[in-house]
Amino acid sequence: MHKKCLFLAIIFMAFNTSAQVKKKEQLPNVIYIIADDLGYGDLSCYGAQKIQTPNLDLLAANGIRFTDGHSTSATCTPSRYALMTGEYPWRKDGTGILPGDAALIIPTDKTTLPNLFKKAGYQTGIVGKWHLGLGETVAKNWNGDIKPGPNEVGFDYSFIFPATADRVPTVFLQNHKIVALDKRDPIEVDYAKKIGNDPTGKEHPELLKMKSSQGHDQTIVNGIGRIGYMTGGTMARWVDEELSTTFLTEAHEFIERKQKQPFFLYFALTEPHVPRMPATRFKGKSGLGLRGDAILQLDWTVGEIVKQLKELGIDKNTLIIFTSDNGPVLDDGYQDEAVAKQNGHMPAGAFRGGKYSSFEGGTRVPFIISWPGQIKPQVSSALVSQMDLIASFSKLIDQPVPAGDAPDSENLLEAFMGKSQNGRSVFVEQGVRTLSIVKDGWKYITPNGGTPYMKAVGIETGNLPTAQLYNLNTDLAEKSNLADKNPTKVKELAALLESVKSAKK
Ligand code: NG6
Ligand code: CA
Prior knowledge:
Blueprint: H1 2-26, E1 29-35, H2 54-61, E2 64-70, H3 76-85, H4 113-119, E3 123-129, E4 157-161, E5 173-174, E6 177-178, E7 188-190, E8 220-221, E9 224-225, E10 229-231, H5 240-258, E11 263-268, H6 290-312, E12 318-324, E13 367-370, E14 378-385, H7 389-396, H8 413-416, E15 426-430, E16 435-439, E17 442-445, E18 453-454, E19 459-460, E20 468-471, H9 487-502
Parallel strand pairs: 1-11, 1-12, 2-14, 3-4, 3-11
Antiparallel strand pairs: 2-13, 4-5, 5-6, 7-10, 8-9, 12-13, 15-16, 16-17, 17-20, 18-19
């Protein structure tokens, strides 16, 4: 009897482990690629005529091309906050565009997109732009271990830059440390006052290889004026022309190392954010100036990743998501001829506004999902957002989200797998100063006293002191404000927005 029990127990254990192993084998690798400031109209698969993006076109042709895919916000930090936490960023103070010395704003004790994967047994890594703060305080020692950061919110491995390409410190961090830092030349960073003796763009414009059109006149690094002051770390400073290939090499190496396990890679590209300074071989290639050249570099980079997956024979077991953190902008503070060489290119496609805007151009971005053999190629009009990935992947990898975490993330797995065209029924979009709400194609923008037009960047913000109501089903370009004609709808959506805002989360 005793022996029989033991025998059964062994059989049971063997069966159980083999079931577990099988399950793990079936889990797809996931690569989340997020561009910086890439607009809906910037890719040829989204209708761009003046620029060709063959690699992304192929990804879209083999997967789902979403036509109503969104970031939550029209700028970077809040949008990435929502992706990471599954929570609308406007619920939390301090989620606006962060300076390069900000403290970490992602909670370390809640579910995040990477720690969801990690819990399910994935190897998790981030390569690229971070912009969610580092360390416990603003004043921090950049020369020791810098934490908490990506490694404390779920990434086993990180190779990042702290904020944006135009903000100091212009260095890479590998896990907790600045790469190639010489202890004899320590780094200091200040956003309030000049430190050290490095020239600034303001005092020495003659040293600049690309002049600023607004701001960007503090410490000069690699001939480009930055936001913020830094001193030291001379050897560790990046060369902008090498930024993208450095990140690509890191991404390649991560994939190579982890190819045998299920992995989750968050690959945050820096194109086409300012300063646009692509590798020399892309310069002048698009005919649209450096912004277009940066988009060519971005497209090539994605192609190189797809190529590697095929070479390793893991392309069929790898799901790729490609999207952007917010809408596009031409002149974002440097004289890089983005406007002069626009040549009829429409970076936001048919949509009004762009980065910083409450109009659709602010948050409606390219959104592509590909998983060869598993997802049927199609175009989907489902309303989906990056914030929904936590709840959706939770189902795909069978890893539950603890109650109360990722409160605004909706399970849209069916839409993300191309099995349904139903997405969210309600979505709140965040401009710089104001919120809008979309339901059944109706969009209500709350009244706002901010400027209707940001002259420096040439973008309509969507701010108006009175209510705006658009019917996106018939008026994608938000040209016809129906608020006066349809006060009932305005009232209904205003009340709905209030209820979303006050929902206990
Ligand atoms: C703005 C910067 C802009 C860009 C943006 C953040 C100026 C004049 N403008 O304040 O260049 O850095 O912040 O972009 O400094 S984001 O994509 O990270 O949100
Ligand atoms: Ca951005």
